Amino acid sequence: MARTVDPARHEARRLVIIDAALTVFAERGYDGTTTAAICRQAGIGSGTFFHYFPTKLELLLAILTLGTQEVRDAEARYAGRTDALGVVLDIVRQGADDAADPRMPGFVRAVGGVMHLPEVAAQLDEDTRAQQDLIRPWVERAQRAGEIRTDLTPDRVTSWLYLLTDGFLGRVAVDQGFTAEGEKATLVETARRFLAT
Q: pTM value?
C-alpha cells in the first residue's frame, strides 16, 4: 500500500536540500560539488537526494527557478504602493540585499561555470525577464508621475537598472573588496542619479 505524501513536509525537505546545495555550490563550485557533499550538508541519505533531484544539474536548475519565483512573488510585496520611484529604488536595494548573502559570490561563480549549458542559459534568461517584468511597470508609473526621466523609453530605463543590479552582483562575485554591504548605498544613489529628471 502506497504511503500518503504530506505536501508541506515534502516541500520543506526539498528546500533543505536546495539550501544545502547552495552552500556547497558556493564553497566548491559546480564541478567540485558532489551529491555526497550535498547529502552531508543536508543531513540526508543519497536515496532521499535522488528522490527529489535526479541529477546535480536538476538541483542547480531548481535553485535558479526558486530565485526566479521569488522575484515573481515580489510583485505582491509592492502592490498597493503609490510611490513608484520609491518602489524602483526598493527593488534596487533588494538586489543589493540578495547579493549580501555570504554564499552568493561563490554561487554566482559556480553558475558562471555552467551558463553555457542550454538549460542553465534558459533559466538565467527567464530570471532576467522576471526581474525586468518586476521593474518595468514601476518605471512606467514613475515616468507618468513625472518622478523620473522620460527621455528614455521604459524598456531602456528598465534595461539600465537591470544592468546596474546585475553588474553589482557580478562585481560582488569577483572582487572581495567590493561588498554588497559596503557598496549598497552607492548602488542606490547611482540608480537615483540615473533616474533623475
A: 0.90
pLDDT in tens, the chain (197 residues): 555 667 888 889 999 999 999 999 999 999 999 999 999 999 999 999 999 999 999 999 999 999 999 999 999 999 999 999 999 999 999 999 999 999 999 999 999 999 999 999 999 999 999 999 999 999 999 999 999 999 999 999 999 999 999 999 999 999 999 999 999 999 999 999 999 99
| Cα end-to-end distance, the chain, whole Å | 67
Classify 3 in phi/psi space as left (phi over 0), alpha (psi -120 to 50) or beta. Answer: beta
In whole angstroms, how far apart are CA 162 and each of 116, 149, 194? 21, 16, 12
Question: What is the grid cell recorded at 97?
Answer: 540585499
Which of the 8 DSSP states describes residue 4? Answer: P
Place of cell 520611484: 85
What letter does residue 99 receive in the DSSP assignment? H
Q: Are 85 and 195 in contact (CB under 8 A)?
A: yes
Angstrom CA distances, 134 to 49, 56, 67, 69, stand at 33, 29, 13, 11
Contact 168, 107 (CB under 8 A): no
- Count of CB atoms within 10 A of residue 154's CB? 19
